[in-house]
């Protein structure tokens, strides 16, 4: 399988690349500073580009079977990498006829109840509302696209390797007293979902 990873230089992106290569996939790593990645491998192709440039995205997508997006950025709401990045990626996927995409988003997009998102509750930390809105816009882009998407809603991410011990829950947060997740476990779950297609066109909560 030929994969492309957007947000390749972030902590989750680097775990994704390593684990995908271990699985024998060919990986395209896309990003502005992608040549800073220390990893070199015959199955790794580094592509310098911007998620704000549709032509660069389209060229990078050619020959890929699936897309993994772990785009990050500032949490003040001024950084539009998440929302516009996913929008541009989805637009170009439709042009080059790629259907499968798995996107890493935020905890606030999970359901508190049938009518309310976690980010809409009084308990949700106010400082995370701006980045939560960015995740929400990315989710809405996916929901209204014709792609086979999965939206993974992550709590606090710990820069640590995979334990392969985590909980997942469809639409709602998993039962946990301290929601957090290792970057390596996020990568592990994303690749597992890519192979199993258990949560196509759904959002998923995850926590160690």
Which features would summarize this protein structure in a list?
8-stranded mixed sheet, 10 strands, globular, Rossmann fold, two-stranded parallel ribbon, 5 helices, 208 residues, alpha/beta, single chain
Explain the layout of strands and helices:
Elements: E1 2-6, H1 11-22, E2 26-31, E3 44-48, H2 54-61, E4 66-69, H3 81-96, E5 100-106, H4 129-143, E6 148-154, E7 156-158, E8 167-170, E9 180-182, H5 183-196, E10 202-207
Parallel strand pairs: 1-2, 1-4, 2-3, 4-5, 5-6, 6-10, 7-9
Antiparallel strand pairs: 8-10
Helix pairs in contact: 1-5, 2-3, 3-4
Describe this structure in words.
The chain has 208 residues and is an alpha/beta fold. The protein has one domain (2-207): Rossmann fold (3-Layer(aba) Sandwich), CATH 3.40.50.720. It is 31% helix and 24% strand. The strands form two sheets. An eight-stranded mixed sheet has the order 3-2-1-4-5-6-10-8, with helices on both faces. The chain has a two-stranded parallel ribbon with strand order 7-9. The chain is globular, with a radius of gyration of 16 Å.
